[in-house]
Amino acid sequence: MKKNRILTGIIAVIITAGLLLSGCSGSKDTGKTTAGKEPYKIGAVIDISGTSSSLGAPERDTLQMLADKVNAAGGINGHPLELTILDNKSDETEAVLAVKKLIEQKVLAVIGGSSSGTSMAMIDTVQKEKVPMISLAAASTIVEPAQERQWVFKTPQSDIVAIKKMMGYLKEKGLTKVAFLYMNNAYGDNGRKAFAVAAQAGGLQIVDEEKFEATDKDMTPQLTRVKASGAQAAVVWAIPPSASIITKNFKDLNMGIPLFHSHGVGNQTFIDLAQGGADGVILPIGKLIVADQVPDSDPQKKVLNTYIEEYTKKYNSPPNSFGGYAWDGFYLLVNALEKAGADRAAIRDVLENTQNYSGVSGVFNMSASDHNGLAADSMVMVQIENGKWKLIK
Amino acid sequence: MDLSSQLLQLLFSGLTLGSIYSLIALALVTTYNITGVLNLAQGEFMALGALLAASLYAAGLPLAAAFLVSVALIALLGGLVERAVINPARESSSLTLIIITVGLSIFLRGLALLVWGTDPVSLPAFSAGNPLQIGGAAINLQTLWVLGLTFVIVTGLYVFFELTYSGKAVRACVINRTAALLVGINPGTMSLLAFAGSGAIGAAAGIFIAPITLATYDMGFMLGVKGFVAAAIGGMHNIGGAVLGGFILGILEVYSAGLVSSGLKDAVALVVLLAMLMLRPEGLLGTIGRKV
Amino acid sequence: MKKNIALWIILILVFTAIPLFIKSNYLLGVLIVIGLYTIIVIGLGILMGYAGQMSLGHAAFFGMGGYTVAVLTTTYQWPTVPALIASLILPGLVAAIIGGPTLKLKELYLALATLAFGILVHILFNELKGVTGGPSGMSGIPYLSVGGLVFDRDIKFYYLVWATVLLVSLGVNNLINSRMGRALKAVRESEHASETSGIDTAGLKLQAFIFSAVLAGLAGGLYAYYVTFISPSPFGFHTSIQFVLMAVLGGLGTFWGPLLGAGLVVALGEVLRWAVPLVIPGAGGEYQIIFFGLILMLVMIIKPEGLGAVMNLFSKPSVEEVK
User: Which of A48, A233, B84, B253 could be stapled to A87 by a disulfide with Cβ–Cβ 3.0 to 4.6 Å?
Assistant: First the structure.
């Protein structure tokens, strides 16, 4: 009996301690408090583990690197930067709790989530609490409708931008009958919706529409139907590993038509896993991945090179576009902090009025009705040749 | 692509998928029959086997060596699991045991995530070469390897249970544990062997399918579920049932994805499962044939 | 008995006082989540602990409640209170329909069937785009408003949720001490014996199943009103397993089990979230996954009756092992 009492006591203490301690936990990545100036606190809610971790991990790495860099250079106007990064485990409920915690620690703004689901879940809280949030996820509903998203911004290009780019290329090559294949999640679904709209407007016909699960191991059934549909080209909206598997299947089945992908495959993993099937794939993507082929006159060239150099030096591997979204989110915020100081509303205003800002993902021009600020010029068409990315001029 | 080629192509895909499911179902059923434990962590053995082999291969080991080392290590893991987790709980209710194996699968998945992260890894196909073209449809060479493995394992298990002393000892345990004890057979050892064996089979299966499906830390879960479904369809009480169930499931899934709609193909598998459970819970082969 | 009431009163006072003394929306958020999960686990506890039936798919009912609220309030512009009531009814109906044939299955097969059911419903959430918005989910769920009272702040929601927990607990307490409760316990101990005593075991199991589904649906509806956004991802297998973990950790068939289980699991998650990166910089949720698996195994091996059994010091005579 006594043992049981002790056990109960311990449990009760753990629960209470857990709750209280969580309420007043310290934060990581604090800058050295240079004598005098108050630190600027910012937070990040990232999908570091869980299903979106391939997005979250490079984002976390980029944010940490940049926070260290800013603090090493003396902070923002002398104020050290205190960045707290929390993992939401790709879970919406946890994202809500994480952002509430950060807000309670009086962060001036929040960067995150990495995926559309976790970002959407946090919107209600940041709107209510009036805290600026810069999402690293792609769904257009994150920043629309604009009148319900005054405090929410995002850095990734919209699917619409990628699709417009692709549409232009398809029409140029006279490919008017396409098959559209997409992964069965928010990313793929949004791609599908946007593509359908653009196809209609652009006079393209979607002769076959197929979907597959993120965890599917074999897409030959879907591809078999595509082959039978008479499509002149196939467009796939997915991320690895399923994007790689379908690409491999495509090659094995001798499909004989050009294969297009979305910007979701913009990393080396995609090519490696497709085991040779990726050659010939064409996709629209941010300039990061072909930064070495971008002309020097491009306004983004300097930023791209800096990011690649610093990230590769610190982490021994090249950065990818997801990390790029984090870079942009971070610097947009730092920029706002420089101009507005420790004032959430002022930060929001500065963000909303960002003009001509050259980031990794593109050149940002925000407005009250556009909290993303990226247009078609933020992407280029790229083709994979011999396992390498080649800019299509 | 004309209809007959289409159907043939789908059949080949179905065989590929079916052989993957059969292997999992096999290991599940064998373990269940020997130990009475439904090992919900079986899928994780596959995942860990594949991930480990991929790492060893990437580190420079030749493919065959990576295979052997990985299989051996995961077999060891299986044995460890049996001693540390299953054995202490052997008197518990089946509800408790199921939850324990669920906890185990969560734990192993977390470990896989920790060690390998989220990026998928792959192994090269065992034999280089383009897919075979038969009748207008393509069949991947690796599929033939997987089918081969399935055949080897089934035959091996048959030989073991029918023709060796240990195999018969195992069957004795299944039929009556106490009687087996009385004649000097140790059920505890049997249980240990069963888990080590299922670890080995799982790892081998994972390595063989990795060139087709790629390996990720979380591949184990859905494969495990499909493995159950396959075992339930074929019958939990014999290995032949497991294999049959695996192929039926694979082909069913592929045909519904190919001919009806790809979104609902997982749903098809589950509906079939539910129907089987309601109508014929003992599976298609049911109590035909022996338990092991 | 006296000890019991004293404990109740102390707890009610503590819970009421928390938001007044600790001004933390974060803490309230955590407690709200614990409260919602407690409601679900109370229902699951009745099903697993008293009626002795397994459910590996309860997130499906949780999701059904949430989606009912979402669809009714956004697509059909229903007022919020009727939508909440509907979120209780739909899961209950579904449970009534599938419960009959499902509960006839034994142990292993029942577990598989509930597992399949849970995954199936999750797939439907993803596939029925026209209704549920598919994987992208539905946003813009209005705040719950009862009469003139709008639940738009964490503190109001906190009281709402915990008042609900209290009501549900009281109801369940009565149930357990009633004839039906005793009948349920009898079924758990031995179905055969209960049948021979004239207890309608099938009917009872079905009622327990429906009851647990209704509670999960209620929690789902409240969840939708809290986050104002819903998508299929919180309603998958991992959530169902989390509920089972909370139920067994807290102790099946005990009164305090659900609260202890839900509280411990959520608190542990939060503690790990901030503690782990302190020890291992840049680390994420992998450790939490590992810990959960570990704890689940350890508890089930060492003390399968869970922690709530321990709390029975304060109330009724202790519960026997789950076996």
Answer: A48
